[in-house]
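Review form for a predicted model. The reviewer records the input and the model, then writes brief findings.
Reviewer: anonymous (R2)
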Amino acid sequence: MADFDYDDLTEEELLAAIALLKLLAATDGVVTPGEAREMRLFAEQIGPDHYDELNRKLDARDLTADGVKALAAGISRQDARELIFAELFELAAVGTIDQQEGALLEWLRATWKLEPEDAS
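Model under review:
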């Protein structure tokens, strides 16, 4: 849906998006300047104060990688899945998509039943 954007995401969908972005960015142990820029752009899309508030909520949950995946698996709206996946793909595409990033993206693609063309 072309008109679906970040304002349409529920709090739980935004929490999942942020948690997935953080997990993806940290897969290689280093958040590059390009990845940090992409995350700042996402924060600007939802509003920096709202982004900070959601980060505090995530920090309180103290999620492991499996916890982030469980949060993501709970996202049921296909429009939200596609929007979040596109954002994650943008982040992963900064530089080279490494094996761990690719594995997370493929897990999401299978879990969320996304077609390969949904990534672009």
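Findings: Helices lie at 11-25, 33-46, 48-61, 65-73, 78-92, 99-111.
Further findings: The chain has a mean pLDDT of 89.
Recommendation: see findings above.
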